[in-house]
Amino acid sequence: MQLPTNPATISLLGYWIGIAAVAACAAAAVLEVGRKQFDAFGVVVVAFAAALGGGTTRDLLLNRTVFWIADPTYLIAAALAGLGAFMLARRMPLPARLFLIPDAIGLALFTIIGTKLAMNMGTHWTVAALMGVITGVMGGILRDVLANEEPVIFSGELYATAAGAGALALIGLLHIETDPRWAAFWAGSLIFGLRLAAIRWHLSLPKFEARR
Amino acid sequence: MQLPTNPATISLLGYWIGIAAVAACAAAAVLEVGRKQFDAFGVVVVAFAAALGGGTTRDLLLNRTVFWIADPTYLIAAALAGLGAFMLARRMPLPARLFLIPDAIGLALFTIIGTKLAMNMGTHWTVAALMGVITGVMGGILRDVLANEEPVIFSGELYATAAGAGALALIGLLHIETDPRWAAFWAGSLIFGLRLAAIRWHLSLPKFEARR
Amino acid sequence: MQLPTNPATISLLGYWIGIAAVAACAAAAVLEVGRKQFDAFGVVVVAFAAALGGGTTRDLLLNRTVFWIADPTYLIAAALAGLGAFMLARRMPLPARLFLIPDAIGLALFTIIGTKLAMNMGTHWTVAALMGVITGVMGGILRDVLANEEPVIFSGELYATAAGAGALALIGLLHIETDPRWAAFWAGSLIFGLRLAAIRWHLSLPKFEARR
User: Which chains have 3+ CB pairs within 8 A of C?
Assistant: First the structure.
């Protein structure tokens, strides 16, 4: 397989994949809060929280300009995708599973981007891995907190664990001086593959049950 | 009608209206969590979250000095108003509706201030409008999340929608070069009017109910 | 009693007490969410929120570099303590009360550190006291919000009130030019003593019950 080599092509491709992942997370979040009686505004807030919450938390912690303030295309994509899903879902039944694959792509992509951003700022590798996981999963946590539910990622199929494994793989691959594009590709594929396998075979971490 | 023209008078007037709106939001929040068995500390936290949460979120996102750190008068006003409402409400029945009008003034004022601040920093108009809405409504969301309730503004009468309409009106009026004081006055009046009309006639956005 | 006078000894001692307090808060949080069916990841998130949430909120509000990004030892200590408590608690019954004393030490220490940091940045004394309380108690609030429960500190035994009393005592003692080490020691002891007394004799603030 041949990865693209023209830097402008790569970064443009990455940019639009990022926009698409933001839109997919926003739409998926709207379907997941479907059982709540939210109005159009509530739906947009939940879509924003799910799609932009991870990157926003990362940017605040790293003291960077928040990414959607620097480039509002992300904001607009999340709003349009959230409203679109809202309007579609009122007309026809949309299975929540429809968005599992775009959501897994988003998880992989956000985690890789967050880890690389933190590494480029020279943080310790533990901090870089955590920033990757935060970028990948904080959106889902905020969505569930706003909907007043226990965050599903605390108890469901592997989600943050897949993000963590991918972030550590990326850091390891870059440490042994793998080509950064391949490192990102393999680490992202690991996250995507783990997440799909977890959904398919209901893989999960051991649950906590304190003895009393 | 004649708007004041002395800049010092305007800014002093605006300053004290802002302090009063912070105090009103704090007092209103205390009455709204009345059914929870919070103690005086919990009440002050909820009062802070409701009265200062919107502006704090805005300042963190825009990387400005948090407004109540720059000027603690806001902090003191929120604490005194929250404690005052706590002590009064233990002695006599205070209808929650008592604060609906000050709360609507606060919504209008906070939204206008947030939108203008973001515009002055040169953000995209979509970001400026969102900052206005965040400044206006995030306090109420934080209050409900802390009280472990589904945020009422996600499903009740027009609230954020009124804020959004006013923020967009302000941006449009300034775009066609309306005098900034009149633009702020008309956009704020739109928010206040929409909110009162929504309370009076139970106006709300269509609810989300996904087909299954 | 003789306090240590060598500055390097003092700051090294303070540093390791801080690390130990972070670890104790993380372990205590894991035991407190024991009745929820969280997995290992959820447990680590809750441990991070409880142990690092207060200082993180303070650093974001004061626009400082987040302390665990500047020194990831805190991050590693919280993760190891959280996972350790998770694994231990699955094997043997650990009483939640086991951590009440380390938790009270953490409350005292975090509050003193937060207050001093804010004072060193020249904030108003009301802001410095609030920063102390936020550093001391925000971790527990975040933990409960993530676990989808009403924050216990809003209605339980004196907790934030102890922190607030200690922060004000520190500010007062420094104002009358007490030796800073003694001021920190006495204010910290006040917090620790108040908290233990509150647990022992079930001291609490008056509850809010609005008349209707």
Answer: A, B
